[in-house]
Automatic annotation (TrEMBL):
<dbReference type="GO" id="GO:0005737">
    <property type="term" value="C:cytoplasm"/>
</dbReference>
<dbReference type="GO" id="GO:0140096">
    <property type="term" value="F:catalytic activity, acting on a protein"/>
</dbReference>
<dbReference type="InterPro" id="IPR033656">
    <property type="entry name" value="HisRS_anticodon"/>
</dbReference>
<keyword id="KW-0963">Cytoplasm</keyword>
<feature type="binding site">
    <location>
        <position position="126"/>
    </location>
    <ligand>
        <name>L-histidine</name>
    </ligand>
</feature>
<dbReference type="InterPro" id="IPR006195">
    <property type="entry name" value="aa-tRNA-synth_II"/>
</dbReference>
<feature type="binding site">
    <location>
        <position position="257"/>
    </location>
    <ligand>
        <name>L-histidine</name>
    </ligand>
</feature>
<comment type="subunit">
    <text>Homodimer.</text>
</comment>
<dbReference type="InterPro" id="IPR015807">
    <property type="entry name" value="His-tRNA-ligase"/>
</dbReference>
<dbReference type="InterPro" id="IPR004516">
    <property type="entry name" value="HisRS/HisZ"/>
</dbReference>
<feature type="domain" description="Aminoacyl-transfer RNA synthetases class-II family profile">
    <location>
        <begin position="1"/>
        <end position="320"/>
    </location>
</feature>
<keyword id="KW-0067">ATP-binding</keyword>
<dbReference type="Pfam" id="PF13393">
    <property type="entry name" value="tRNA-synt_His"/>
</dbReference>
<comment type="similarity">
    <text>Belongs to the class-II aminoacyl-tRNA synthetase family.</text>
</comment>
<dbReference type="InterPro" id="IPR045864">
    <property type="entry name" value="aa-tRNA-synth_II/BPL/LPL"/>
</dbReference>
<feature type="binding site">
    <location>
        <begin position="81"/>
        <end position="83"/>
    </location>
    <ligand>
        <name>L-histidine</name>
    </ligand>
</feature>
<dbReference type="GO" id="GO:0006427">
    <property type="term" value="P:histidyl-tRNA aminoacylation"/>
</dbReference>
Length: 420
């Protein structure tokens, strides 16, 4: 039987994994600069957490979750997004009792049963941040700026933020009434999903990608025109903060995001030359309470790393990856092979990436192997060199070689590694 990788998943092979490591380290570095700490939550949670946290009317809960029963009959779901699990951890560990705000980030795989396509898989990876315990609108601006700086640091051009306010529990009911009144006469023209949303969550209709639905809602009432005084002043402060940070943004009054927990600020990152968003987020001031905690505000974002890699590929951005070997140790004779082990160990302890021949190849084959793995240097050790306590070191890029004392090899390779 021939086994194949499951549909919607991929094997990340050497040569590709290094790109992932690079962008993940960029994410961690920017989180460090903004004083975020990493949190790691389980890959699966109680199904009810996502039903309550993400929302019963979302496509994620209705169509895309991987849900199963364990041997104890408990319903569990592979996490389809990161925020609900992080909020659950925040509440369960009673972190809300600590001095606030709490600033966490996460990087890891998520799971949704959707149609695989470029940049979207059924197992995908997300980098996300969450801030709990503050309603400060300038925190919204800082969070948006963090994601913006992350994209920029990878070399992506044309990064822009689409911004909207989706109001709160005070101003949204009135807007909902006006929206339903506007849509009701044309209800039968809406797609089936949007017809269902009319009763449960009509704001989601504004986010529908169906062209007919988009045309119907083109002149629909706008949430930004119906904000209460608190939401209006909060939104104005967020925009002013983004101006201060010089983060480019445009108002997108149709933007409501695909999750039910958002309040006030909602945003997405779009990048030149890439269809759809690369990530997004917003405020969720009621979510902590919905999950069983106190009434405490929160804001965050989630960025799909597959989408980031797709954008880098489409913009032909070359990441500065270093996957070469600092030194390949080529040996002639059994005594040299034996001695090479302690030399390799010393070089590795000094922080150098080194390799040796493990197939018993002749010198020509060893040099070819060194060239295939992009070795910077080849150190050649044979019986004659051992007798003289020397080693021949050759720089593959230039062909220049020299003979040095064997006890100077570690220092020599380390110096080449650091200074070229």
């Amino acid at each position: 039987m021939n086994f194949r990788v499951p549909r919607g998943t991929v094997d990340l092979m050497p040569g590709e994994v290094e790109k992932w490591q690079y962008i993940e380290e960029k994410a961690r570095e920017w989180c460090r600069r903004y004083h975020f700490s990493e949190v790691r939550t389980p890959l699966f949670e109680q199904t009810e957490l996502f039903r309550r946290g993400v929302g019963e009317t979302t496509d994620i809960v209705e169509k895309e979750m991987y849900t199963f029963e364990d041997r104890g009959g408990r319903s569990l779901t592979l996490r389809p997004e990161g925020t609900a699990g992080v909020v659950r951890s925040f509440v369960e560990k009673k972190v809300y009792g600590d001095p606030q705000p709490t600033k966490w980030y996460y990087i890891g795989p998520m799971y949704r049963y959707e149609r695989p396509q470029a940049g979207r898989q059924r197992q995908f990876h997300q980098f996300g941040v969450e801030v709990f315990g503050t309603e400060d609108p300038l925190t919204d601006a800082e969070v948006i700026d963090l994601g913006f700086q992350f994209y920029r640091s990878l070399g992506l051009d044309g990064v822009q933020v689409e911004l909207n306010s989706v109001g709160c529990h005070r101003c949204r009911p009135l807007f909902r009434e006006k929206l339903v009144a506007y849509l009701t006469p044309r209800r039968e023209e809406l797609c089936k999903d949007c017809q269902s949303r009319m009763e449960r969550n009509p704001m989601r209709i504004l986010d529908c990608k169906n062209e007919t639905c988009q045309a119907i809602t083109a002149e629909a009432p706008r949430m930004v025109d119906h904000l209460c005084d608190d939401c209006e002043s909060h939104f104005a402060a967020v925009k002013k903060g983004l101006d201060e940070l010089q983060v480019p943004f445009v108002l997108n009054t149709r933007l409501v995001r695909g999750l039910d927990y958002y309040t006030q600020t909602a945003f997405e990152y779009i990048v030149e030359g890439v269809s759809g968003s690369l990530g997004g987020g917003g405020r969720y001031n009621g979510l902590v309470q919905d999950v069983g905690g106190p009434d405490m505000p929160g804001i965050g974002f989630g960025i799909g790393l597959e989408r980031v890699l797709l954008a880098l590929e489409l913009q032909e951005v070359e990441l500065p990856l270093s996957i070469e070997v600092d030194c390949f140790l080529a040996t002639i004779g059994e005594e040299a092979q034996q001695r090479s082990l302690s030399l390799l160990q010393a070089l590795r302890q000094a922080g150098c990436s080194v390799e040796r021949d493990a197939l018993g190849r002749k010198m020509k084959g060893q040099l070819k192997a060194a060239d295939r793995m992009n070795a910077r240097l080849v150190a050649i050790l044979g019986d004659e060199e051992l007798q003289n306590n020397q080693v021949v070191v050759k720089e593959l890029a230039t062909g220049v070689q020299e003979t040095i004392q064997l006890d100077k090899l570690v220092e020599y390779v380390r110096d080449k590694r650091m200074h070229g």
